[in-house]
Amino acid sequence: MRINLFNEIGVEKANRKVSFVIMNHGKQELARQLKSRHIMMIALGGAIGAGIFKGSSSSISLAGPGVIFAYIWGGLLLLFVMQGLAEMAVQNPQARTFRELIEPILGRFTGYTLGWIYWLNWVLVMSAETAASAVFLQYWFADVPLWVLSLIVSIAITFLNLFQVNIFGETEYWLAGIKVTVLSLFIILGGVLLFEGLGDHPAVGFSHLTSHGGFFPHGFTGLATSMLVVMFSFGGTEMIGMTLGETENPEKVIPRASRGVIYRVLLFYVLPILVIVSLVPWDQVSAAGSPFVTVFQAIGIPYVGGLMNFVMLTAVLSATNTGMYAASRMLYTQALDRQAPRFFGVLSKRKVPVRALLASTSFLYVGVIVAFFAKGHTFDYLMIIPGYTVMATWIVLLLAHLFSHKKGMKVKGYTFKGFPVITAFALFFMLLIFAGVILTSPLFGTLFFFLALLIIIVSYRLQQRASFMRVKRL
């Protein structure tokens, strides 16, 4: 036992020494240039993407009108996750990402595993969102192959992220602003059509919610299956925890942004979905396209299809942009903490982790390859894995928050009033949903996730052994 303990201590000291050298060589520090409004829109940009504009077709076809409850339930669970994240961020202001909030509480193994799971999540999300953007572009460029359009988008997004982080933040602010504005208009117009009617279209009310097989046409199974899409859709709000190292006054900004973003996410998911399933029978919402375009085409409004297609394009580009930021920062901090090759722990003159960025970007081209073979189904294929990784991330965040209050510890600043009961409640139901998703999801997606998890665990053991050998040689 004493030898094993010495080995672990030696490995940890070696890792900390390497981390210190990397962080301080040439003053390698991320620039704190992100403001409160940037943080809010970055989180919205990550969450409001293909998941609402395209993925909602899949969730509606799986659960029918009852999918509204899936989005409400998922949003409430996310609220508890975000409150816990905000409290941990205030207690640990030196953290650069939420991985560094978790590791002191749950240990190096958990931090390592979560870091790589979250990186995998975003590189796959980038691929899925890029594939979705190609589908939307094909609305105007019907003769151009999807893989060519995916390639063009990948190159453009890569180029944008090579600039300073404040340029990324400003771009994301306006991209997210476009889709938030249009979703607001969609909700207002949908409300008018539902209650007052418009032109030749009489008010339809809410009769479609129950007239086509009932509110839950596929029962509990359909509702449980839709949770995978819902969790994938909400994934991105925890992005607030990825901006800790580049945010001005994070101890003040993060709690405020955590509260505000969850209410906006719920607003811009639940109300549009309610409008869609109320205006158009759920079984007429094509799982292959966007329900927003379906709604406008069904009520006969001219030229709106092209406009909404443009908005959906900006939405998925925004989510891709956010994904590239998250993946590159996670890989960069993993390298600083000796949990990834040191090669990735270097910043450019603009304080951008360019090596980590380019390595993460390579997965965009994996999406291009999948788009070449999938023939329009790339989004559905790539969406399964991020659904799992998002839930795994939320579960670990809740677990860390549950154990974050040490005996006799006084929590300063922002506190989560529902701790520990609500945190434990959310963790229980998140585990329940995770089990339900495993039982109802496609087998290949489940196997791929657990295979990836096994590879990460094995790589951790190999990395620990290599670190011990370095210590032994010293």
Automatic annotation (TrEMBL):
- Any GO BP annotation: amino acid transport
- The Amino acid permease/ SLC12A domain sits at 38-444
Which parts of the chain span the membrane according to its record?
A: 39-56, 62-85, 105-124, 144-163, 175-195, 215-234, 261-280, 300-320, 356-375, 381-402, 414-437, 443-462
Instruction: Give a GO cellular-component term.
Output: membrane
**Keywords from the named record:** Amino-acid transport, Membrane, Transmembrane, Transmembrane helix, Transport
> The organism sits in which domain of life?
Bacteria
Q: Name one Pfam family in it.
A: AA_permease
Q: Supply the InterPro entries for this chain.
A: AA-permease/SLC12A_dom, Amino_acid_permease_CS
Q: Where in the cell is it found?
A: Membrane
Stated membrane topology is: Multi-pass membrane protein
The yes or no answer to whether the keyword Transmembrane helix is present is yes
Protein name in UniProt? Amino acid permease YvbW
Record gene name: yvbW_2
